[in-house]
Design a protein that fits this description.
Blueprint: H1 16-23, H2 29-40, H3 42-46, H4 50-57, H5 61-70, H6 76-88, H7 93-100, H8 109-130, H9 133-145, E1 149-152, H10 156-170, E2 175-178, H11 181-188, E3 196-200, H12 207-218, E4 222-227, E5 240-243, H13 256-275, H14 278-293
Parallel strand pairs: 1-2, 1-3, 3-4, 4-5
Helix pairs in contact: 2-4, 2-5, 7-8, 8-13, 9-13, 10-13, 11-12
């Protein structure tokens, strides 16, 4: 079984806004207020003094410094530099700020569409940009050697688990998704050395998924977690952790954004794994495609005027 992966470390080098968003649930209440102020107006905070930000958040400069250190920075000057860099990377900071805010009750259909499109597209690009490629390769290597693959996820993550099962089975990998918690824990109890278990949870706090992953882990299976939060409970029972970068808001909790981010990781896993044995992959895809084609309605040409 793979050695336990070190828990992901925060820092500006992986995208300061993505880092702050992913660590938000684990921050102290005062630090969380500072974090929310930064996320709400990164461009404005980049130009404020530490005393101005502290006053806005109803706290002290010392608390702001503690927040900076909690997200992997040395102090407030580093935070301002990181935020200035993040804003500079956006083509239109004003448009980004407007689009990235939560959906408001008074938003019209065009604004809602714009915000959803921005959030979904950003989930893909941020997830791909900040995915730990070394860990991705290690997970695919474990999948390539696995005697059996269990995939756990409930609710919205259950649909992603089924998608990964379908992809893996199309290239001949023995994969099974278990969206039902009772069936998941029963299957996990039978996993062992040489097997791989994957748990999908956006928040990383879904008890049913954590329990199944822990059960598989306790019997010697290699475990991987796909989550948006690097310090969440699910990472404690995972040998490998793959982090998504979706931004769910109060209006869109459980929205498509988190699933799109998870599906991005799933596609990266699938294609990287499939590439390891291209001849075998081509044969498997051709055979499964031909079998599926046989289930489609065959269209017949309508008789045209003049046909005999």
């Amino acid at each position: 079984m793979a050695e336990q992966q070190a828990r992901p470390q925060p820092g500006a080098d992986v995208g300061i806004l993505v880092t702050i968003r992913s660590l938000l649930p684990n921050l102290a209440p005062v630090e969380r207020r500072v974090a929310q102020a930064v996320l709400d107006d990164p461009q404005g905070v980049a130009w404020r003094s530490i005393s101005e930000l502290a006053r806005t958040c109803g706290t002290s400069a010392t608390s702001v410094v503690r927040f900076c250190r909690a997200v992997g920075l040395r102090g407030y000057p580093d935070l301002r530099l990181a935020l200035a860099g993040a804003v500079a990377r956006d083509d239109d900071a004003a448009a980004v700020a407007a689009a990235s805010h939560d959906i408001n009750p008074g938003d019209d259909a065009a604004t809602i569409t714009s915000k959803i499109a921005y959030a979904d597209a950003r989930a893909v690009t941020d997830t791909a940009s900040h995915l730990d490629i070394a860990i991705l390769v290690q997970v695919t290597e474990a999948l390539a050697k696995a005697g059996r693959i269990d995939i756990y996820g409930v609710g919205a993550s259950g649909f992603v688990a089924l998608d990964l099962q379908m992809k893996l089975q199309r290239i001949g990998r023995p994969a099974f998704a278990w969206p039902d918690p009772h069936m998941a824990i029963s299957s996990a109890a039978l996993r062992g050395s040489g097997d791989v278990a994957i748990g999908l949870s956006h928040t990383g706090t879904t008890v049913d998924t954590i329990d199944a992953l822990r059960e598989a882990h306790s019997h010697g299976a290699a475990t991987a977690a796909v989550t948006n939060f690097p310090w969440s409970p699910i990472t404690e029972v995972a040998d490998f952790v793959l982090i998504t970068a979706a931004r769910e808001t109060a209006f869109r909790s459980g929205a498509t954004t988190s699933r799109i981010a998870q599906l991005t990781v799933v596609d990266c896993l699938f294609v990287t794994l499939a590439q390891q044995d291209l001849p075998g992959t081509r044969v498997a895809l051709e055979r499964t495609f031909a079998a599926a084609q046989a289930k489609r309605v065959r269209r017949t040409r309508r008789q045209q005027p003049g046909d005999q």
